[in-house]
Specification:
The complex is a heterodimer of chains A (535) and B (135). Chain A is α/β, with parallel strands linked by helices and 535 residues long. Chain A has 10 helices and 17 strands. In chain A, 21% of the residues lie in helices and 18% in strands. In chain A, strands 1, 2, 6, 7, 8, 9 and 17 form a 7-stranded mixed β-sheet that branches. In chain A, strands 5-11-12-13-10-16 form a 6-stranded antiparallel β-sheet. In chain A, strand 7 and strand 8 form a beta hairpin. Chain A is globular. Chain B has one domain. In chain B, helix 1 packs across helix 3, helix 2 packs across helix 5 and helix 3 packs across helix 5. The longest helix of chain B is centred in the last third of the chain and has 17 residues. The chains are: A alpha/beta (535), B mainly alpha (135).
Chain lengths: 535, 135
Amino acid sequence: MGNGRLQGDGLKYDAIVIGAGAGGGIAACVLSEAGFKVLILERGRSLSYEDVPRDHLRNHRLSQYGHGTGPEVEGNPRLINGKRVKPHQGGYNNNASCVGGGTMVYGMQAWRFHPLDFKMATTYGKPAGSSLEDWPVTYEELDPYYERAEWEIGVSGGPPASQMPKRRDYPMPGVPHTTKAKRLIEGCSKLGWSTQTTPMLINSVPRGGRGACVQCQHCVGFACPSNAKNGTQNTVIPRALATGKCTLETQVFVSRLLKTRGGRVAGVSYFDSDRQLHKVEAEIVVVACGAIESARLLLNSGIGGPAVGHNLQGHYYAIASGYWPEPVWDGVGPGVSISTLQFNHGNEGVIGGAMMADDFIMMPIMLAKNFRPSGVPAWGQAHKDWMKSYPRFAQVGGPVHEIPSWDCRVAVSRSVRDKWGVPVASLSGTTHPETVRTTKFMIERAKEWLAASGAESINAGTPGLWLSAGQHQAGTCRMGSDSKSSVVDSNCRVHGHDNLFLADASVHVTNGGFNPVLTIMALSFRTAECIVRSR
Amino acid sequence: MPSLSELQLRTLVAAIDRIVPADDYPSASQSGCDEFLVHLIELESLVETYRTGLDGLELEALKFGASFAESKIDRQDEILAKCHQTKRSQGWKVSPRAFMDLLARQTIEGYYADPGNGGNKGGIAWEMVGFKVTV
């Protein structure tokens, strides 16, 4: 490591955690509390509520001209099928870049994956052309870690759905049902579908020294005015720092993992905010940058083998929308409160399925942008009249369990570099056609749900084959036993590198028919425990 | 130097007030969308596109013998609709259709986004649609 350009800071850590998001925050906490001397390196800033503007054109729900939580619009491009895009532009597949990562502004749905989500290949067979595999980890193995995430980060929710195994209840009662949810529950009872109050990583009652949700109208995509949204920035990262063993460096960018002979990593090199390059050594390195940036870091470091970057996936969303004859908008945030697990599995003729739920309170501009019916002109009085139907509008839908494709991938560009001079992520490929089939099936269920609940003029889009990653990005460093087709083992340790671990959704073999964050959190608790045990 | 000439500004106000016309609630310009757009097009390097597009609308209006801003609203609507159906036109340096898509999209952004962006003065569009901010 005798690179003369690098400034060694002379310190050696027990563990370096790269990325202070859902996975990294938890790993840092578990390791610090176990007595490890930990360094967290986060490229974004530490943000307060006041730092994140309530700008309806620049947020993580609608980033028309930017977003409030990074990464910066300039200097951080990606290539999407060869086309250069900025972080706020379509196709970038951005996640918030700040302390807490996506959990600072997320929609915080707190789902466990279904037991069969871990056994998709065994349950359904492996479709030709897909890279569908079972996980090397079962639901039963993850159960105690799901429970830790639910209790230590903090989940509110109704009794768990009947489709899931028996388990401990949530630590907090669910958020109240909105007017819209009451209609949707009526619809479900007509259809004979069971419902569950949506589990969310939010304080429905005061907890952990912070207040309860104040039911505001700016939840997903924005920071929380009462700090009731439970992310890693207000739970496990403060715990890590309170040990006195953990250092958090922000606005630093890790450019490489430093290899040694013999299969260990020696540490990392990173740029500080003054563009000075540092190197820092550690016994253990945990990479938790999200499925796209983690794969990029491994590729730029020449680590991880031939599977790094492959099997990129996220979630197709099966969504339908409609209008009730009278207002169903009551302004009670977050807005999501009811869901059904009726169609996650056991669907005739398709593979897997999806959880379905109602949606967050929608910014009016998002109705205008995304839901204009074909009969309504793009402007004029008729457009304005249609916008007045906003309180009668609602959508339902959910994240479809994607069938992965090896060819959908993250590579690193040979020509385009970021502001640090580091080759950027280059995304290409599409999901497998079976994902589209399941999405079409689920869209029909979403329409049925709305119709049974009294909605009219029901609309839905038509899914095609495309690259899906988004905030739910996953799969690029999948778990497995074969180092040719997977990157990490069942403990999320990188094949051939005893002291290198991944703690984000890049390790997901498949991404479930659910929002993935609770699974990221559970796996990170488990991986960090494994690191502590093997010390 | 102002990004748009006085004539271009008059054309802009007249055009956006057909995109969101006044009824019981304000028109686009009454709600501040012209200021929103003037600011936005500087930020987004769209000044030249807007100059060209607004000059194009004026050119179309003059074919009927009056400035766009002085034309009757039926005539204004006719010109906007025609431009939206026209991919290329002589005398236009941008596609009329692309300009109309942009103008309509960004006017509507100004009208329905948060008042901090410059349009939707006093949250009037939110009051109209029934979006109430409690916290």
